[in-house]
Amino acid sequence: MSDLAAPSEVVHPHVERPQVSRRQVAAAVAGGVVGIGFLALAARGVDLRAAGSILANADVGLAALAAVLLVAPLAIMGIRWRLIARSTLPAPTSVYIELNFVGAALNNCLPGRVGEFARAVSLSRSGPDRRPVMEALGTVIADRAADVVFFALCFAVSAGPFLGERWAQYVAGGGILLLVVAVAVIVIAVRVVRRHPTGTAQGRIRRQLMFLARGLAAVPGTRVWLAAGAVTVVAWGVWMLGMYAAARSVGISLSPLEITFALAVLGLGTAIPSLPGFVGTYHWLTTTCLVAFGVARPDAFAFAILLHALWFVPMTAIGLPLMLRAGLRFGSFRRLPPEVVPTEARG
User: Fold this and answer.
1) How confident is the model at residue 127 (pLDDT cuts 50, 70, 90)?
2) Could you give the C-alpha distances from 233 to 78, 103, 107, 212, 268, in angstroms and in order?
3) Per-residue pLDDT tens digits for 45-81
4) Alpha helix positions (H), 86-203
5) Residue 9 vs residues 3, 89, 120, 123, 175: alpha-carbon distances, Å
6) Alpha-carbon span 160 to 328, nearest angstrom
7) Secondary structure of the chain: what % helix, strand, coil (to 5)?
8) What are the φ/ψ torsions at residue 339 (nearest 5 degrees)?
9) Mapping DSSP to helix (H, G, I), strand (E, B) and coil, where does residue 20 land?
């Protein structure tokens, strides 16, 4: 029996349902306002009947193929996450893939990217020995940093024809900032771990930061980073094929350069706070990109709705049953559990 078919091997202890804080409510409201605002911008000036007709006449076969190609990268990225984390958090590849789908489903349903914390909490308890949640979270951040680097490279090689657009300039600035932060955080973490190889630190906060740094610096060497980079290229290459198939299903033809640029914009632009599942921001970014490519606005908006649905629906449909089968609940991951340090590491 495969590891994925045996979720009992991944220990998911019950976490007491926390109270919702005012900060969480404020963040959710702010994300909702931003998401609704961007959705309204995406739909501005669009003949919704025309957009609906375009969706109704979409090629079902191509759309189904696109859905498979858009969801498959999440499984491929489970392989990358294991490459990054295996030296400190060994677990079967199937566990990493399963947790990727659980995290994506939670991100689609709850605000605040709680799916990333869910991945960390679950991974920290997936092996025979419990590991610090902050260490697992460090591997999640390193895993996401690989995407940021890839998106930045895609933007650098494809943005030239579109940098006259003001919104593209904002995306470029935000992308540079994200890239600098991602690289700086990992470099600092590596230096901290090299200075304190035993991982000891006095005080709860310092100890948690040390665990986080250890997770960020988990990749054992350049060869593993290169392997992780290769997996990243494969995963997003499959996603770009999915985007091409989705576009063809509604009669839109996109060039490789345009698909590369759109991927970079979506990857970097969805860092903007929004509703769960990037509702609103994703639609505006997609519509804006296609209009810049010369696609009529109703077609661009219809494509944005289709592209979002083709990954949102199957990822959620796969991830939620995996979450429930593992005994998890939505309230379990609205904050990190209080016990994030193994007993033997406590001072």
Assistant:
1) low
2) 14, 21, 23, 26, 16
3) 888 899 999 999 999 999 999 999 999 999 999 999 9
4) 93-109, 114-124, 133-158, 166-195
5) 7, 14, 16, 11, 39
6) 46
7) 75, 0, 25
8) -90, 90
9) coil
Q: Cα-flanking dihedrals φ and ψ of residue 163, to 5°?
A: -70, -10
CB atoms under 10 Å from CB of 157, counted, come to 11
Token pair recorded at residue 294: 């010369």
- Two tokens at 107? 């991100």
- The pLDDT tens digits for 176-232 are 887 787 777 767 766 665 565 555 555 566 666 676 777 666 766 788 889 999 999
Q: Residues for the chain: how many in total?
A: 347
Provide the 10 A C-beta neighbour count for residue 254: 21
CA-based angle 234:238:242, to the nearest 5? 165
- For the entire predicted model, the pTM comes to 0.81
Q: Give the per-residue pLDDT at 63.
A: 97
**Three-state DSSP string of 200-268:** CCCCHHHHHHHHHHHHHCCCCCHHHHHHHHHHHHHHHHHHHHHHHHHHHHCCCCCCHHHHHHHHHHHHH
